[in-house]
């Protein structure tokens, strides 16, 4: 079904439109963004049920990545929108499996030449209820101009015709951009990296003139009556400044992107480490070009020197294990394989009443045995950014009730209600339903939810029970294995519901990833006081629009100098918050031009693909690190000149 031919355009929002041949459109959006709106006909509503894929061809020649948002809205207002990242100068066929609108996956599989594809919006929508379709692009730095054609519903995946365009050079740099640090050849690469290797790193940053407390031999927390601190094993006050993903590698997914690649080196013994399955790693290949067989040892020396010179005091999440042992810097430990169950409640939320959840939690906790006696461990995180928590005010109980599967948690909810109401008539009166028995709660076809006040309260109370068990069961097992180190939580992406704090008072430190202009002081202080513990920020970043990548992350500035000032503003403002004890930057390396495993390709690194530091950014970063001690001690005011940021060029 050709969508553009079958539908009359209902509305244009902040966008200029020109019609082309064969039902194609050319759209121009202002920096505010804009989009198009179509109301579905009876015929097209049936087509959504009869087909399996929604596809369209997109092309643009902007300076940076174009984000296309396909938004599907039910008559009642529920919606899911799918964000597609589109490289400049590459004709792309976007494709959405319609089954993805059930909301079970946050990140979708990549199709050829497409960058990250991610879902936003409500927990799910029903195909038969879709009323309106929007095609939109968000706000941007300079506005957008792009073509849209072959928009159609299909019973099968479309054909993906890939035009040969050598998008990156032999060192993995963007062929469509120029910037000062761009390396021209292998000789320049080798000379530059070897010069950097000769620099000796300074001593690691620590609190100068800070308080001293009782030494316990391991990191712990301390409240001094005014502010929270981390305390290192020797009893010294410590504010954790870290960087994530300190690794030699940053692999690019090349499957589906072959037409955009230059000739790759031979997969011989020399470059074999740069090849792995569907990936090729230009970062690693460049180290091999510069250092030969000693690339790994030299990378560790170079990187350790740089982190110390730049006054980092913590090695962050997902960093190279051998590098952690090579360095003497403190580090955090990210646990892997958070316990799962065969059946899920929603996305990655497990069936927490299933006995297998506790069994798997016991196995999960065993990985702490390897760090139990390590004094350098600041603390450990049980997981990162659970996908179920990406939906604002997610209603896990309602989603669970409409699942066909009869999970242990669903049975537990029926038992919970039977204990509370005793008789089905009392539940029906409170819920305004007509259930024949409590067992009917296990059969989705027999449910007609009224969303009465009593029903909403029951959902809310049981959701708190679910979230508490989600936290408490693995945490208890972790405590049994390791009593020495701080449990630093699960690094929520943001607080999408107040229920996310259930059970979190059992942590030692609450962690959150905070991609904002500055740490959210009000939220941090609220959480710290509510849970009676400090907070640590597990991720934040700022990208720059003047370097080699076409996407600049969730927060970004026009150039590296402003990017550095944004970093300084963030870190120094954070150091002044009494309840905050650390900030960890994401990440050490730039991401690959053609995307990592999921298509993310942000200019957010401290260094680029050729191991070149962003010097203007680093200069401002070091100023922040130099000032943290005085700010934390109350002897210096934090930097207060936030530069102007540009609109998000992330997905």
UniProtKB/TrEMBL annotation:
Key words, A-Z: Glycosidase, Hydrolase
GO molecular function term, any single one: beta-galactosidase activity
A GO CC annotation given for this chain: beta-galactosidase complex
Record protein name field: Glycoside hydrolase family 42 N-terminal domain-containing protein
Top-rank taxon: Bacteria
Keyword Hydrolase: yes
Keyword set includes Protein biosynthesis: no
GO biological process assignments: carbohydrate metabolic process
């Amino acid at each position: 079904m050709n969508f553009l031919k079958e539908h009359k355009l209902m509305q244009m929002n902040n966008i200029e439109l020109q019609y082309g041949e064969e039902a194609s459109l050319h759209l121009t959006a202002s920096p505010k963004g804009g989009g198009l709106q179509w109301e579905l006909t009876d015929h097209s509503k049936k087509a959504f049920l009869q087909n399996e894929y929604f596809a369209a061809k997109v092309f643009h020649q902007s300076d940076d990545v174009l984000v296309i948002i396909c938004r599907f809205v039910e008559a009642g207002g529920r919606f899911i929108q799918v964000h597609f990242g589109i490289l400049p100068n590459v004709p792309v066929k976007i494709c959405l499996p319609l089954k993805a609108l059930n909301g079970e996956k946050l990140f979708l599989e990549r199709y050829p030449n497409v960058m990250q594809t991610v879902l936003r919006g409500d927990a799910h929508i029903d195909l038969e209820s879709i009323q309106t379709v929007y095609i939109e692009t968000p706000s941007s730095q300079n506005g957008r101009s792009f073509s849209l054609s072959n928009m159609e519903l299909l019973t099968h995946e479309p054909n993906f015709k890939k035009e040969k365009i050598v998008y990156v050079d032999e060192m993995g740099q963007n062929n469509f951009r120029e910037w000062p640090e761009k390396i021209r050849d292998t000789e320049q690469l080798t000379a530059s990296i070897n010069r950097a290797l000769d620099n000796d790193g300074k001593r690691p940053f620590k609190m100068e003139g800070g308080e001293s407390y009782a030494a316990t031999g391991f990191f712990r927390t301390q409240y001094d009556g005014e502010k929270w601190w981390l305390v290192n094993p020797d009893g010294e006050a410590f504010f954790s400044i870290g960087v994530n993903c300190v690794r030699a590698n940053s692999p690019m997914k090349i499957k589906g992107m072959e037409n955009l690649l230059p000739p790759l080196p031979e997969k011989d013994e020399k470059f074999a480490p740069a090849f792995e399955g569907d990936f090729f790693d230009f970062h690693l290949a460049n180290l091999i070009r510069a250092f030969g067989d000693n690339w790994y040892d030299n990378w560790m020396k170079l990187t350790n020197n740089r982190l110390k010179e730049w006054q980092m005091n913590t090695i962050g999440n997902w960093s190279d294990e051998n590098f952690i042992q090579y360095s003497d810097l403190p580090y955090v430990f990210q646990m892997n394989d958070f316990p799962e169950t065969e059946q899920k409640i929603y996305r990655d939320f497990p069936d927490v009443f299933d006995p297998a959840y506790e069994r798997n939690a016991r196995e999960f906790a065993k990985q702490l045995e390897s760090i139990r006696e390590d004094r350098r461990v600041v603390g450990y995180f049980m997981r990162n950014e659970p996908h179920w928590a990406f939906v604002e005010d997610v209603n896990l109980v309602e989603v669970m009730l409409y699942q066909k599967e009869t999970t242990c948690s669903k049975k537990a909810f029926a038992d919970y209600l039977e204990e509370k109401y005793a008789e089905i008539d009392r539940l029906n009166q409170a819920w305004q339903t007509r259930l024949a028995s409590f067992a009917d709660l296990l059969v989705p076809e027999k449910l007609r939810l009224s969303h009465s006040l009593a029903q909403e309260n029951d959902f809310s109370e049981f959701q708190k029970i679910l979230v508490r068990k989600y936290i408490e069961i693995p945490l208890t097992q972790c405590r049994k294995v390791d009593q020495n180190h701080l449990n630093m939580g699960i690094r929520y992406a943001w607080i999408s519901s107040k229920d996310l704090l259930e059970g979190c008072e059992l942590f030692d430190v609450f962690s959150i990833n905070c991609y904002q202009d500055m740490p959210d002081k009000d939220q941090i202080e609220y959480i710290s006081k509510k849970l009676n513990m400090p907070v640590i920020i597990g991720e934040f970043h700022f990208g720059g629009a003047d370097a080699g990548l076409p996407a600049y992350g969730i927060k970004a500035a026009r150039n590296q100098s402003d990017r550095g000032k944004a970093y300084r503003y963030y870190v120094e403002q954070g150091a002044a918050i009494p309840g905050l004890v650390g900030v960890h930057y994401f990440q050490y390396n730039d991401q690959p031009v053609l995307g990592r495993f999921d298509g993310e390709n942000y200019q957010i690194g401290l260094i680029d693909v050729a191991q070149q530091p962003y010097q203007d950014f680093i200069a401002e970063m070091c100023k922040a690190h130099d000032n943290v001690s005085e700010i934390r001690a109350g002897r210096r005011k934090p930097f207060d000149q936030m530069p102007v940021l540009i609109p998000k060029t992330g997905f």
